[in-house]
Amino acid sequence: MSQASSVVGAARNALPGLRLVAGGRSREDAAHTDAPPDADHLCVGIRCRHEHEHDEEKRLAESRRPWWVRARDRVLEDLDAAVERDPAATSRAQMAVVSPGLHAIWAHRVAHSMWQKEGLRLPARVLSNVARTATGVEIHPGATIGRRFFIDHGMGVVIGETAEVGDDVMLYHGVTLGGRTLNKGKRHPTLGNGITVGAGAKILGAVELGDGAQIGANSVVVKDVPGNHVATGIPARHRALADREDPYEAMFAEPALWI
Ligand SMILES: CC(C)(COP(=O)(O)OP(=O)(O)OC[C@H]1O[C@@H](n2cnc3c(N)ncnc32)[C@H](O)[C@@H]1OP(=O)(O)O)[C@@H](O)C(=O)NCCC(=O)NCCS
Question: Most buried by CB count within 10 Å: which residue of 24, 62, 164, 204?
């Protein structure tokens, strides 16, 4: 088994929610994921309705659990995601203590909840600045970031106020999710689920990156990248992943992702 395959296998085992299948998902596949329906995720008939009812039940059950239990579970899943994605990691405890990427996202989660209350916006900015000083990662408290988010190495990451990031996204150091305009309003990128952005890449403007997209190191992305595409270069050009090629496998096959 190749190193890539073993990494993929380990990721699948540890993160069953991680969506690693590229392109060509059947309706059967779609109806069995936890993801909401989208344009290429046709979900029709009674089966889909049951799926949504099931999701709604899960959401209600989740909201009934005490906040500290939910917080603990989120911290643990962040730790597991980090351990899986950092080959140098040896344990949850090690990552909890030494990973600036994790410290940054945990501080952001607190700052983001403060940001929702008008009166706490200044303290939220202050907390975000303290986290930036400690970790080298600047995340505006207004940015919306999904679950199991991980930044490897941390230093030099900048995420703007109106950026939106889905679940199971990983960034390397030096990534910018920045704006290209001084206008207020939506001006930062929107990233779907299961995306990896290589070191030093700049994603600029209100562009959209579809689920499973992979962005090469040092690329400059100024246009949308469809789901399950690999984008590299300045300005970035994208290519589709081969039919059912695993996005994680593609990272090993595409040297530019690691430059
Ligand atoms: C370079 C820049 C000033 C161009 O802005 P613009 O004039 O509005 O550019 P356009 O959208 O008209 O794009 C013109 C062309 O340049 C390309 N382009 C745009 N920005 C580019 C960049 N940074 N690098 C390489 N090519 C770029 C576009 O792909 C487009 O190519 P095409 O004509 O082949 O389609 C802007 O894209 C930019 O990079 N601004 C810096 C933003 C930044 O640093 N933000 C950080 C915030 S934290």
Answer: 204
Determine which residue's CA is closest to atom 12 belonging to ligand 1.
222
What's the pTM?
Answer: 0.77
Give residue 247 CA to ligand 1 midpoint distance, Å.
Answer: 27
Give the residue, by CA position, lying nearest to ligand 1 atom 13. Answer: 222
User: Is 172 in a helix, a strand, or coil?
Assistant: strand
Q: At what angle do helices 100-115 and 121-135 cross, to 10 degrees?
A: 170
Any ligand 1 atom below 6 A from CB of 233: no
Q: How many angstroms is it from 232 CA to the middle of ligand 1?
A: 15
Q: Which of 28, 22, 62, 21 is nearest to 48 (CA)?
A: 28
Q: Which residue's structure tokens are 């597991």?
A: 80
Q: Would you call 187 helix, strand, or coil by DSSP?
A: coil
- Using the 8-state DSSP alphabet, how is residue 205 labeled? S
- Is 235 near ligand 1, meaning CB less than 6 Å away? yes
Q: Is 234 in the pocket of ligand 1 (CB under 6 A)?
A: yes
Cα 104 from Cα 156, distance rounded (Å):
12
CB-count exposure of residue 7 (10 Å: 0-12, 13-18, 19+): middle
